[in-house]
Amino acid sequence: MANHIKIAIIEDDSVIAQMYRMKFEAEGFEVQTAENGAVGVELVKDMQPDVALVDVRMPVMDGPTAIKKVRELKGKQPIVIVLTNVGEEEAPEELHKLNVHSYIVKAESTPREVTEHVKEALARKK
């Protein structure tokens, strides 16, 4: 299933980003990471990923701002999944208006559960 499926991980914690990168690559996905929202928007523009996993709180540009800018890009729109430790009730209100597929709290999900969630989202999009 994962053949040529591209995933962008926009996460400022490099240890977490690499952990998810290794998990997704082990499942056969093509993965690139960005350390903040500004770099993430450029990554999405260049990579044209199928899925973007985006943290909420990051330096330079936060997740909601990055998602808003991604939604303004021309071309293929990725499935956006918020992957954060900010509880959903604490999430910025604007997230609900940005066509986010789902919201995952990192502390409540294993990397395996996150990859399964992404596979389900891709299967539903087809």
Question: Could you please describe the fold and organization of this structure?
Answer:
By secondary structure, the chain is α/β, with parallel strands linked by helices. The chain has one domain: 3-Layer(aba) Sandwich (Rossmann fold), CATH 3.40.50. 39% of the residues lie in helices and 19% in strands. The chain has helices at residues 14-26, 37-47, 63-72, 111-125; strands at residues 6-10, 30-34, 51-54, 79-84, 102-105. α1 links the parallel β1 and β2 (30-34).
Features:
Rossmann fold, 4 helices, globular, alpha/beta, 126 residues, five-stranded parallel β-sheet, single chain, 39% helix
Secondary structure topology:
Blueprint: E1 6-10, H1 14-26, E2 30-34, H2 37-47, E3 51-54, H3 63-72, E4 79-84, E5 102-105, H4 111-125
Parallel strand pairs: 1-2, 1-3, 3-4, 4-5
Radius of gyration: 13 Å
Helix tally equals 4
What's the N-to-C terminus distance? 12 Å
Shape: globular
- Helix and strand run: EHEHEHEEH
Strand tally: 5
At CATH level 2, the architecture is 3-Layer(aba) Sandwich
Strand share of the residues? 15-25%
Average pLDDT across residues?
Answer: 89
CATH topology type: Rossmann fold
What is the CATH H-level superfamily? Answer: Response regulator
Unreliable stretches (pLDDT < 50, length at least 5) are: none
Q: Please estimate the helix content.
A: 25-40%
Number of domains: 1
CATH class placement: Alpha Beta
Largest sheet: 5 strands, parallel
The class by helix and strand makeup works out as: alpha/beta
